[in-house]
Amino acid sequence: MSKLFSIKRGDTLPKVKGQLFSDSANTSPVDLTTAETVKFKMGPAGQSGTLTVDREVQVIDAAEGRWEIQLTAIETNTQGQFEAEIEVAWDDQRVNVTTYPKEDFISVTVFRDLDGPES
After folding, report:
1. How many folded domains does the chain comprise?
2. What pTM did the predictor assign?
């Protein structure tokens, strides 16, 4: 099951927060202590190759795999359904990369706001 996050168009809060797990039962946190980079990648649902967000998260608790990112107003400017994932590079050459969640996506919904255009 994917994790769900929703925000209004143009908003920057709440932050997107999560914890990475190495198993589908969510009992074994991923230790990010030795990670080179941890990135949040988001794009339109059902599409590949078009990213609206592709930048590093703030690691809150490396040993427990906890992270957060504050989206910008530009990144939440388009209403709709998006899919996101966390990409962890374990070395600076980006040879060893793991993507989470492993079996699905973080589901992100950007809702319209009442004072903006319809789309």
Report:
1. 1
2. 0.90
